[in-house]
């Protein structure tokens, strides 16, 4: 493992068997120069660089050392909260964003207000991590940041979690989610209450279904699918209205985005719809109570 670039006293960009990554450890970068060997005993964290991201070559040379430190500290806490791992690209991207905050606000760049609202509900966990990050930078580094930065940081977190060779277009994901919610609201003839736990769980489940579709990582289990089909066929008879909505949703996703559902996805999304209807004063039945707590 050899040094490519010292990022600060506690972080190095290194070459490990032909692959670049960022390694973090107390004092690991002190006095290090390009080509030096790295003491692996000092490494406490490794951030792999996302594949096919060659545009990052040389990018790190323009990023301020303290901003990289800020990005590392944020990533460390966000990984714990989101239970996900970020890449080295995320560290550099976030550090660069922090570095140019002042210039950005001098240029009066902003995010439209409706987008703030969408991000809060489409990516609720990432939004909470972003809120914490802004407060952290304000409290520890005395940075005076407007609340608009919560949206920018949310997008960084979403991109950071999806960029590791999976989905690299957050706009595409957001658009599909919005299309789905608009379809549901149209069929139900009312606005969904985005503050409910039922709505939050539905969006989380739907989002990961879409990601698995976009990345080609859908589960393939004939045994599981057959078992769910029996339950799903029975539940169809109990919830004809929710069934009709689900069929329209499936048709839209298939025709417009080439996405296909399995029986297990059918079943779980149907349960979410039942819960959403119940929370909004729709249906009230024993089956909904029985399945309570069964859907993530």
From TrEMBL:
One of its GO terms (molecular function) is RNA binding. Residues 62-167, 168-283 form the PRD domain. Pfam families: CAT_RBD, PRD. Transmembrane segments: none annotated. Keywords: Repeat. SUPFAM superfamilies: PTS-regulatory domain, PRD (SSF63520), SacY-like RNA-binding domain (SSF50151). InterPro entries: BglG_antiterminators (IPR050661), CAT_RNA-bd_dom (IPR004341), CAT_RNA-bd_dom_sf (IPR036650), PRD (IPR011608), PRD_sf (IPR036634). GO terms for biological process: regulation of DNA-templated transcription. This is BglG family transcriptional antiterminator.
């Amino acid at each position: 493992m050899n040094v490519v670039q010292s990022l600060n006293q506690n972080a190095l960009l290194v070459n490990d068997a032909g692959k670049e990554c960022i390694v973090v450890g107390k004092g690991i970068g002190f006095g290090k120069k390009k080509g030096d060997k790295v003491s692996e005993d000092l490494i406490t964290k490794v951030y792999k660089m996302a594949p096919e991201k060659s545009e990052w070559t040389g990018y790190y040379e323009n990023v301020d050392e303290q901003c990289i430190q800020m990005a590392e500290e944020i990533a460390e806490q966000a990984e714990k909260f989101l239970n996900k791992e970020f890449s080295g690209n995320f560290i550099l991207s976030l550090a660069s964003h922090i570095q140019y905050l002042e210039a950005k606000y001098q240029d009066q760049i902003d995010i439209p207000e409706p987008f703030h609202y969408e991000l809060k509900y489409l990516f609720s966990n990432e939004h909470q991590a972003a809120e914490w990050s802004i407060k952290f930078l304000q409290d520890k580094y005395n940075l005076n940041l407007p609340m608009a930065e919560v949206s920018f940081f949310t997008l960084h977190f979403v991109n950071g979690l999806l960029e590791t060779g999976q989905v690299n277009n957050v706009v595409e994901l957001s658009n599909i989610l919005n299309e789905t919610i608009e379809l549901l609201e149209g069929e139900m003839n009312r606005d969904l209450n985005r503050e409910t736990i039922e709505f939050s769980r539905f969006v989380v489940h739907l989002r990961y279904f879409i990601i698995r579709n976009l990345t080609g990582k859908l589960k393939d289990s004939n045994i599981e699918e057959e078992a769910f089909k029996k339950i799903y066929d029975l539940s169809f008879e109990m919830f004809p209205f929710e069934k009709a909505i689900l069929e329209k949703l499936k048709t839209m996703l298939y025709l417009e985005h080439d996405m296909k559902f399995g029986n297990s996805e059918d079943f779980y999304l149907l349960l979410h719809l039942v819960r959403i209807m119940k929370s909004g004063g729709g249906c009230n039945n024993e089956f909904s109570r029985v399945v309570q707590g069964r859907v993530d």
